[in-house]
């Protein structure tokens, strides 16, 4: 039987919480693997935490591995297999476990060096099969969510993380990455995205208040926006319908700040509703500018508020950053807001990183600017790299740039900035 077929069959037939055990048996029987380890990225994206193996023949849980500075972390960051020589003819292969751009963790397999090198591409495909099955299995088990927790989540954070899509995703036209802090105690900030054949919608929200009340408000707002989006209405009407839902429940006593973006994938034309505190930043030709938007009322403040979408046009190579007020408004001990100069320096330092890694880099720089590790408010960064529609001859690479005359809005149009990144470049 084909080895990949055997791996897929074993994973599909395994109980949801026993996927690692099923895969270990396949790797031992078909690849002569001597040891198998699975680590998943924690909620804060700082450490790869071991997933326990059960049943007979277990070798004990591996140690956690840092996302930055460890061998498994190199595979996770670069999104490429990384080999370690162990001696005695053995190799430890670290394989990224990723689903449609969402980085879940790393599968580490100890096996003879000849097997590792000859079948490295095949082993990488096995790791991808495992990732897809983990995503499906999470509907029926908490095993993988528990394994990702370095600390206990607050109830508010539990609500927020259950609302979230993946932390990163990628298609030919774009790549997305996002991160929240404090990961284990977030309460009001949130992000959401959804893509169809021809459109990508991204929203960043900031719920008023603290703790469980802020998370419940955000939950209502996110689900109201999704309900409107899935009904097929334009984004201005999505905002209006969510505004009505929040006002009907809270009577104007609570509101939700929202930055809502809808992108036409074939052209890069973008419609934006700015209803509150999140900022939209553009990197084009290595220059960072805040996109000039018409500020409108946060959702839920007044009954039946009307919203208007502005139109802009993205060019291949553009990078968009969505940042909450817990990022741009944070003040250093000396009194300077992060958004004045330090944010631009952090974004410039992350210019060569892929979209999935940019939010973490910006938030690490924010901690240095703040002068203490723990924030006073939620901090959220979403990065969108726009590649544009690939041309038939580009093999998935960015296509031709749009001319400056196409589209509307205030975004300037010099040559494009950062291009697609297929690996973590240091």
UniProtKB/TrEMBL annotation:
Q: Output the InterPro entries linked to this UniProt entry.
A: Bact_Sigma-Reg (IPR052016), PPM-type-like_dom_sf (IPR036457), PPM-type_phosphatase-like_dom (IPR001932)
Q: Which portions of the sequence form the region Disordered?
A: 389-426
Work out whether the entry's keyword set contains Nuclease: no
List the biased-composition ranges (Low complexity).
389-405
Record domain PPM-type phosphatase: where: 171-386
| Keyword field | Hydrolase
Q: Which Pfam families match?
A: SpoIIE (PF07228)
Q: What is this protein called?
A: Serine phosphatase RsbU (Regulator of sigma subunit)
